[in-house]
Amino acid sequence: MIICVLSLLPAGCADQSPTETQQKSQPVYAYPGDVRLSVARINETKRALDDYPNADRAKAIIADGTITVDEMNEFDRTMAACLSKLGYDGQYDANGTFSMKRLNESDGTTDSTQALDECQTVTGYDVIRTLYSNAVRNPDDVDLGPYVVQCMIDIGAAPQGYTLDEYVMDSRNRTGPYATLDALQDTDPSNSQAQQIRECGYDPLHKADDIIGAPKR
Predict the structure, then answer these.
(1) Among residues 71, 70, 87, 75, which one has the least CA distance to residue 14?
(2) What tens digit of pLDDT does each residue of 107-152 get?
């Protein structure tokens, strides 16, 4: 059984539990570099992690205001090792899709949702990984809304004069550019306009090309 879920941002499915040596020898994921966090991001993340019962590692990572590539890779390995102990191989692929495969199909002791909760959610791993992605995509922590609007206009997905309020409404109701995106994804997901609309929403500053899972222009 393979369980796949989309995620923001690292690794394929193994047939057996990796040993500690194998985990340490796995290639480093393609993170683009260390990121410096704004004070606002640090404070917001600290407040969020207060609700996570096993987030000591996550809190330690942001304590100095920087998330390094080494810290991200080590957290990735810890998450993978945790899932392995619960009977799953779980990794992100180059498209940012997270897949879980039971290592032993006869082992039904741990539910996949429970395993994800224990290894990702309660540890704050998902918070740190999203925080890293956001810091790369938006290093100055600016409001991306106006940039998304301009990007939609530039690619022809929205008319001249398109406003931020219209964009907020369209993104909420799946109208405007998002209705176009939904229609294209049903018929031709690789369509270039669909890819451009996805990127406008995800990375309007075009900073995230080197993050695993980032849409490609």
Answers:
(1) 87
(2) 656 788 888 888 888 899 989 988 998 898 899 999 999 999 999 9
Dihedral of the alpha carbons of 145, 149, 154, 156, in degrees to the nearest 10:
140
| Number of residues that this document lists for the chain | 217
Q: Give Cα separations from 15 to 12, 80, 89, 217 (angstroms).
A: 10, 13, 8, 33
User: For residue 172, what are its two tokens?
Assistant: 């909420």
Tokens read off for 72: 């991200």
Which sign, positive or negative, has the C-alpha torsion 164, 165, 167, 171? positive
Residue 117 to residue 108: CA distance in whole angstroms: 16
Which residue is associated with the tokens 């369209």?
170
Angstrom distance (rounded) from CA 120 to CA 82: 9
- CA dist 151 and 115 (Å) reads 39
Location of structure tokens 């997901």: 189
Q: What confidence category does residue 18 fall into, taking pLDDT thresholds of 50, 70 and 90?
A: very low
Q: Which residues of 13-41 are buried (b: 16+ CB within 10 A; e: fewer)?
A: beeebbeeeeeeeeeebebeeebebeeeb
Backbone torsion region of residue 79, taken as left when φ is above 0, otherwise alpha when ψ lies between -120 and 50, otherwise beta: alpha
